[in-house]
C-alpha cells in the first residue's frame, strides 16, 4: 500500500458501502433460472433491459449504421482515426434533438452547449472540477444515489452536505430543508457552490415537482450558487405527473440570458432511457460558455468512441424510431412497476408512490426489530443471504430514516421477478418458509461478525451514529 498515492488509498470512494457490497455477494452466487436457481437475484442494479428488442430490430433494419458504412461504403478508416474531442457534429445535433423530444419539445437544446462525456459519472465529476475547489460543498437532497459519494467527491475533493428530506411529505424538497443544509455547511466552514438533484429521483422513482424546482431556482438565485440537474432518468416517466425539466422552469419564468440561467447545468445519459450503460454516453449541457469551454477540455480524459457516436447519431436521427421507442419503453416500465408493487403488496409491503425510474422506494420499517440503522443492516443481510435478493438499504443512500430500501425491477425477466417476489413473500410470512442451508447459515454468521462500515452512517465529510427514531 505504501507504493500507492493517498488518493488511490483513501476511503472516500465508497466501495465499502452496503450498496456495493451487495453487488459483490451477487457476483459470487448469481441467480440463473437453469444453472443456479438458488442463487442471488440482482435487484440492486438500475439497468433497463425491457426494450432491447426494439433497438435490436432497428439495428437489423439499418445495417449500414451497425457495420460503419455510409451509402454501402465502409467508413471504418474514417472512424478509426483521431477525432476532435468536441465530438461528431452529427451526434451532438442528434443528441440535442433527442433531449428535446424526451421533454415533449417544450424546451430546446443548442448542440454548441453540449459537452460529450463517457457517461453521466464523468459528466458529474467534470462539473465538480469546473465549479468547485477542494473543500467546497454541494448540497444534495436525501436520499441520494450512493455513487455520488464517489462521483462528486473522490477525485475532486468536493464535499457533500445533505438536504434532509423525510417521509412525512414523501421526501420532497422544502424551503426550510434547503436553508438548514446551507446553514449546516456554514457551521462547518464550507463554501457552498451549488445544489445537485436527480430528476426523476434515484432512489425515490419520483419526478421533481414544479413547486420544488421553483424553490430551487429561487434558492440558488438568492445564494448566487449553481444548480446541477441530473436528468438521466427523464425518459423513464411512465405515469402522471409528467417530467418537468429545470430548463422548462427557467423558460417559463423568462430567465433566459440571465445570470441564474448561466448557473443551471443539466446532466444526461443514454444509460437508463435506452438501456445502454455499456456504450458510455453522457452529456453536460450548460448555458455558460466558460463552463462549456472548461468541461470540453476536461472531456479529453473520457471521450466517447467515434464508432459509438456514428451508430447512435443514426439511431437518434430516426424520429419514427425514437418516438415509438420512448412510448413503448414507458408502457413496459409502467407494467413492470405495477407487477412489482402488486407483488410487494401481496407480501404486506408498501412503496412510496412513484411514477418514474427503474426501481421502487420500498418501506420495510415494519420488518425491523428496532427503529435503528443497525436493525436495517441486519434485515438487509437476511434478505441478501437467506432470501437471496440483493436490494439496496436506505442507509447506503444516506436516508435519515431506517427501514427504507431501493428495489430495482427492470434489469431482469418477468419470470425472475416472480421468483424474487415469491421468495420475499415467504420470508415475510415466516422464518419457517425460508429454509436456510448450513452453508448459508455460516455465511450469515460470519458476516455478522464483521463490523458494519461507518460509511453506512456517514453523511459525506463527517460520521453520525445510528439514531433511534
Describe the protein's architecture and organization.
Pfam families: Aminotran_1_2. The chain is an alpha/beta fold and 469 residues long. The protein has 2 domains: 6-53 and 323-463, Alpha-Beta Complex (Aspartate Aminotransferase, domain 1); 66-318, Type I PLP-dependent aspartate aminotransferase-like (Major domain) (Aspartate Aminotransferase, domain 2), CATH 3.40.640.10. Helix content is 42%, strand content 13%. The chain has 18 helices and 17 strands. It has helices at residues 6-9, 18-28, 52-61, 63-66, 76-80, 89-102, 120-131, 148-153, 175-187, 210-223, 246-252, 259-262, 289-298, 306-317, 319-346, 373-387, 414-429, 438-449, and strands spanning 41-42, 69-70, 73-74, 114-117, 137-141, 159-163, 192-198, 226-230, 264-269, 282-286, 350-351, 359-363, 389-390, 392-393, 404-408, 458-459, 462-463. It has a 7-stranded mixed sheet, with helices on both faces. Helix 7 crosses helix 13 (289-298), helix 15 packs parallel to helix 17 (414-429) and helix 16 (373-387) packs antiparallel against helix 18. The longest helix has 28 residues, at 319-346. It is globular.
What is the count of DSSP helices, taking H or I runs of 4+ residues? Answer: 18
Average predicted confidence as pLDDT: 89
Give the helix proportion (percent range): 40-55%
Widest beta sheet: strand line-up: 4-10-9-8-7-5-6
CATH superfamily of the largest domain: Type I PLP-dependent aspartate aminotransferase-like (Major domain)
Radius of gyration from the alpha-carbon trace, in angstroms: 22 Å
Amino acid at each position: 500500500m505504501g507504493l500507492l498515492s493517498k488518493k488511490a488509498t483513501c476511503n472516500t470512494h465508497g466501495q465499502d458501502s452496503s450498496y456495493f457490497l451487495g453487488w459483490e455477494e451477487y457476483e459470487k452466487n448469481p441467480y440463473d433460472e437453469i444453472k443456479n436457481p438458488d442463487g442471488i437475484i440482482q435487484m440492486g442494479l438500475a439497468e433497463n433491459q425491457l426494450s432491447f428488442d426494439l433497438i435490436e430490430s432497428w439495428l437489423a433494419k439499418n445495417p449500414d449504421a451497425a457495420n460503419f458504412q455510409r451509402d454501402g461504403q465502409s467508413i471504418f478508416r474514417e472512424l478509426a482515426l483521431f477525432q476532435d474531442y468536441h465530438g461528431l457534429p452529427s451526434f451532438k445535433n442528434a443528441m440535442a434533438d433527442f433531449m428535446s423530444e424526451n421533454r415533449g419539445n417544450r424546451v430546446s437544446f443548442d448542440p454548441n452547449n453540449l459537452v460529450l462525456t463517457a457517461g453521466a459519472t464523468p459528466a458529474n465529476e467534470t462539473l465538480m472540477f469546473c465549479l468547485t475547489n477542494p473543500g467546497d460543498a454541494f448540497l444534495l437532497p436525501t436520499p441520494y444515489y450512493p455513487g455520488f459519494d464517489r462521483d462528486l467527491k473522490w477525485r475532486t475533493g468536493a464535499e457533500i452536505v445533505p438536504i434532509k428530506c423525510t417521509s412525512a411529505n414523501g421526501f420532497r424538497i422544502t424551503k426550510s430543508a434547503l436553508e438548514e443544509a446551507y446553514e449546516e455547511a456554514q457551521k462547518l466552514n464550507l463554501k457552498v457552490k451549488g445544489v445537485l438533484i436527480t430528476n426523476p429521483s434515484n432512489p425515490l422513482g419520483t419526478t421533481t415537482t414544479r413547486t420544488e424546482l421553483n424553490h430551487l431556482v429561487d434558492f440558488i438565485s438568492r445564494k448566487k450558487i449553481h444548480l446541477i440537474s441530473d436528468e438521466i432518468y427523464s425518459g423513464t416517466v411512465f405515469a402522471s405527473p409528467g417530467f418537468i425539466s429545470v430548463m422548462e422552469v427557467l423558460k417559463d419564468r423568462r430567465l433566459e440570458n440571465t445570470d441564474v440561467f448561466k448557473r443551471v447545468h443539466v446532466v444526461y445519459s443514454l444509460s437508463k432511457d435506452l438501456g445502454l450503460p455499456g456504450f458510455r454516453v453522457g452529456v453536460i449541457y450548460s448555458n455558460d460558455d466558460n463552463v462549456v469551454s472548461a468541461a470540453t477540455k476536461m472531456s479529453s480524459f473520457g471521450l466517447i468512441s467515434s464508432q459509438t457516436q456514428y451508430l447512435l447519431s443514426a439511431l437518434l436521427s430516426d424520429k419514427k424510431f425514437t418516438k415509438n421507442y420512448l412510448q413503448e419503453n414507458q408502457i413496459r416500465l409502467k407494467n413492470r412497476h405495477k407487477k412489482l408493487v402488486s407483488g410487494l403488496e401481496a407480501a404486506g409491503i408498501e412503496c412510496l408512490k412513484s411514477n418514474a425510474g427503474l426501481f421502487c422506494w420500498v418501506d420495510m420499517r415494519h420488518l425491523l426489530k428496532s427503529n435503528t440503522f443497525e436493525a436495517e443492516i441486519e434485515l438487509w443481510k437476511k434478505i441478501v443471504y437467506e432470501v437471496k435478493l440483493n436490494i439496496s438499504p436506505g442507509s447506503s443512500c444516506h436516508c435519515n430514516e431506517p427501514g427504507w430500501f431501493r428495489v430495482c425491477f427492470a434489469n431482469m425477466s418477468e419470470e425472475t421477478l416472480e421468483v424474487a417476489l415469491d421468495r420475499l413473500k415467504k420470508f415475510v410470512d415466516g422464518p419457517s418458509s425460508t429454509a436456510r442451508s448450513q452453508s448459508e447459515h455460516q455465511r450469515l454468521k460470519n458476516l455478522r461478525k464483521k463490523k458494519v462500515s461507518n460509511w453506512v452512517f456517514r453523511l459525506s465529510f463527517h460520521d453520525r451514529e445510528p439514531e433511534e427514531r
